[in-house]
Amino acid sequence: MRMVEAMSDVTHVDVLVIGGGAAGLSAALVLARARRRVLVVDSGRPRNAPAEGVHGFLSRDGIAPADLRATGRAEVERYGGRIEPGEVLAVRRVGDGFAVELADRAVRTRRVVVATGLRDDLPDVPGLRDRWGRDVLHCPYCHGWEVRDQPLGVLGWQPAGVHQALLLRGWSDDVVLFAENLADADRARLAARGVAVVDGQVHGLVVEDDALRGVQLADGTTAARSALFVPPRFRPNDALLADLGCERDNGWVRVDPTGRTSVPGVWAAGNVVDPAVQVVNAAAAGAKAAIALNADLIEADLLEGAA
Fold first, then answer.
1. Which end of the chain is more exposed for a tag (fewer CB within 10 A), N or C?
2. Cβ(175)–Cβ(169) below 8 Å
3. Distance from CA of residue 8 to its chain's centroid?
4. Which key words are in the record (predicted)?
5. pTM, two decimal places
6. Structural domain for 64, as ranges
7. From CA 176, how far away is CA 243, in angstroms rounded?
């Protein structure tokens, strides 16, 4: 088996990583350091692009998402990995490997890591998407510290809103849940935690001087808030995994603890298979997948040599 310090020919690689976020770059880094020929194809549309910083990542807390990715790309390239912008159009099995169709050519690879993340579906409230990642937020652990002690709102458009409102009381004494048809049991829990409930449909946002000032209800009243948390509906970007026939559990592609899917030779890591993981967890998942994948390649080489 020939392993190289750097790749000049990316037509044939050991591993093709689809997605250049924390999970994909972490996998590529570990594999490049293991002297594997690695190609990362990245669409350049990171989910956390609107966020001011990445939080809860030890030694990287507060780093801008773009800076984290730039640092990761440089580290991968330092060890001979290759990173290219682009879209993967299709992946299909060819023998014991895969043919990956890009816009301009096909790449042959022995193994595939899919780290394409997810997208956030938001309710149809005017102005919500424009403020996303700024003062319309999705995760108390990611953004709670930055808006601590401020008047906070939670849009209770789905059951996770109650949980978020209960969580946010740890960051602020002034938390309001905007909800319709709230169950009595949930009202009791929120009251016990000191969370106010505003009944009614949210109609829009009040923004002044490029900052959220309030949440407007359908009846015309406005509740003054400086940040609004909105638990999104998570939609995995897993069309490639579906086309490969990967098995699912509860709507998400099923993986083992290393990220191995039900399709031999295909790993998946990060938000594409787990909506709950944060950046630090996604990076760890990518590293774990890379270690298992490298061991799998070694076993394949041994079997080939014995044949």
1. C
2. yes
3. 31
4. Flavoprotein, Membrane, Oxidoreductase, Transmembrane, Transmembrane helix
5. 0.92
6. 12-119+233-306
7. 43
